[in-house]
Write a structure and sequence with these properties.
6-stranded mixed sheet; Rossmann fold; two-stranded antiparallel ribbon; 10 helices; alpha/beta
Length: about 260
């Protein structure tokens, strides 16, 4: 059983779309209503013999994601499914993706470290893991499997080194070799002007959400969902940030090219 915990449904659909665009199949999104393990077995029963490279569980927010870590390590969470006995699997790999959101009066390093401390606390009863969360790997954290415990993966949005969220990651996927960065710069200028003209009501932490959706509103088709923008190529799945992320994903879930 290989599980990827993410904060929300947007994260799940974006990652699935990015995988499909890049030729990684067998990626399925779980229901957030039943809990991690029970949702996995429900999806497995639904799919039958179809392969699951890994399953994505959208927890709902960052707090719920962190709280889901410990139950996901418990193999006996789902001994049966709707009254039926199921053949249980061990959790082979457990990876998670968290935003490193901008916090007031916090710099990048403090924010990255606070996320690591938050995760380390959840692994406090697993001393073989805990020490691995002292420093973030800029290429994404991977902790090898320890005895009966799973391999662990961690990616902090947008790129493991600076503050931000999914939308900051996506802004780095706006990658034009002949005009790199110019389109996002223009989108930021438009948003800034709209703020100055008092045409907006979004909260400051959502600036990157506003900028990426401004850029995408200029594309064909305007109003596409984030995941569909990857499918259509308006967000570049071959951009450096996407390649770096997919490399981490393939390594942590042991997916062959």
């Amino acid at each position: 059983m290989k599980i990827l915990l993410v904060e929300g449904k947007n994260d799940a659909s974006v990652i699935k779309s990015l995988c499909e665009k890049s030729g990684i199949g067998g990626v399925h999104i779980l229901s957030a209503e039943k809990g991690v393990i029970k949702s996995y077995y429900a999806k497995k029963e639904e799919l039958g013999d179809e392969k699951i490279n890994f399953a994505i569980y959208p927890a709902g927010n960052d707090d719920k994601l962190v709280k889901a870590i410990y139950p996901a390590l418990q193999e006996d969470e789902a001994k049966n499914l709707q009254g039926k006995k199921v053949e249980t699997e061990e959790v082979e790999t457990l990876a998670f993706i968290l935003d490193a959101d901008t916090k007031k009066d916090k710099d990048n390093d403090i924010n990255i470290n606070s996320r690591l401390q938050q995760i380390a606390y959840r692994f406090r009863t697993f001393p073989n893991y805990k020490n691995h969360f002292k420093k973030m790997n800029p290429d994404g954290l991977i902790i090898p499997k320890v005895e009966a415990l799973p391999r662990i993966g961690l990616w902090l949005m947008p790129n493991n080194t600076k503050q931000g969220m999914l939308e900051d990651f996506l802004m780095e996927m706006v990658n034009f070799p002949d005009n790199e960065g110019a389109c996002i710069k223009l989108a930021k200028e438009c948003v800034t002007r709209a703020v100055n003209e008092e045409c907006t009501s979004f909260r400051k932490p959502h600036l990157s959400k506003t900028v990426i959706h401004t850029y995408l509103s200029w594309q064909d088709e305007p109003g596409d969902a984030l995941a569909l923008s990857i499918t259509r190529g308006n967000l570049n799945a071959k951009s450096p940030i996407a390649i770096k992320f997919l490399t981490w994903l393939r390594k942590v879930f042991e997916i062959e090219d």
